[in-house]
Amino acid sequence: MFYQGTQLPPSNNSDSSDDGVPVSPPRVRLRDGRYLAYREKGVPKDQAKHSIIIVHGFGSSKDMNFLAPQELIDELGIYILQYDRAGYGESDPNPKRSLKSEALDIEELADLLQIGSNFI
């Protein structure tokens, strides 16, 4: 009885196809050949009034929760891009990673996804 009470409910994984087969997140290839995985949320980027790129912290990934009501996101017209930093989640590592390389990864990701120059 205790065992059943401590089990998590089955996952409602949105990264699965209709037949339950896991679907890989989208990834982009950077100029240096590495891949960055990302997830888009909010309104479509071509309809967005505001674009936010979320950089996760240590021990996290693009799958972290962004706790804002969907109604607010829609009302404000917010497009959200979350990505796995180099060496995290499903992104390739960068042996020469630095603060500058992180900023350059964000800039290149934004360019490849055609987000434009106005993002937070």
From TrEMBL:
Coiled coil: none annotated. Gene3D superfamilies: alpha/beta hydrolase (3.40.50.1820). Residues 1-27 are annotated as: Disordered. Residues 9-22 have a biased composition (Low complexity). InterPro entries: AB_hydrolase_fold. It comes from the Eukaryota. This is Serine aminopeptidase S33 domain-containing protein. The lineage of its organism: Eukaryota, Viridiplantae, Streptophyta, Embryophyta, Tracheophyta.
